[in-house]
Write a structure and sequence with these properties.
- The protein is mostly helical and 181 residues long.
- It has one domain (3-180).
- Helix content is 68%, strand content 5%.
- The protein is built from 7 helices and 2 strands; from the N terminus they run ααββααααα.
- The protein has a two-stranded antiparallel sheet with strand order 1-2.
- A hairpin with a 2-residue loop joins β1 and β2 (44-47).
- The radius of gyration is 18 Å and the shape is elongated.
- It starts with a helix and ends with a helix.
Length: 181
Amino acid sequence: MIKPLLHPFSIFSEKKLLFFGIVLTIFSAFLASFFNARRNGVLDVHFVTSISFTTALIESLINLFILSIFLFIAGIITNKKTRLIDIFITALVALPVFLLTFFFNINNTMSDLGLQISELNSNNSIMEILLDNIFLLLVFALWSLLVLAWVFILLYSGFKVASNAKGSKPIFFIYWCNTSS
C-alpha cells in the first residue's frame, strides 16, 4: 500500500504517470487559487489574501520546468541515456504533493496569521500572536516537513528510475537540484 505512494515510478506506466501528473498539477493549481496558496518557488509555499487560478497554474508550470531542467542536467551527468520525458514526469508527480499544505489556509487562517506577524505594532506583541496560534503553527510545521520529505522521496525514486542512477548520486543530485532551483 505504501509503495505506490513512495515509488510510483517503478509500478505505473509512463502514460499513467503523465496523465496523473497533469491532472494533479491542474488540481493543485485549482486548490492553490481556492486556498490562496502561492508556489512561486520550487520548494516554496506561502499564503496570500488572493491568487487567481491562472497565476497559480503559471507558477506551477514555471516550478515544473525549472525543476525538470535541473533534474535533466543531473540525469545527463549521471547517465547520458536519461530521457527528458522521464525526468519531466518525475517533477510532474512530485511537485503537486505540496497541495497537502494548502488546506491549512481555510478561511485565510495562515494568511491572516502571516499578516499579523508582519504588521506588529504596540497593540499586539509577537508573544500574544504566537501563544494564540502555537498549536496551529506546530501542526503546520510538522505537516510541512512530512510533505517536504514525501516530495524528496518521490524526486529521489523518480530520478533514480529515470537516470538509472546507483549509489549516493541521486541523493546528491536531488539536493543540488532543489537548492539551485
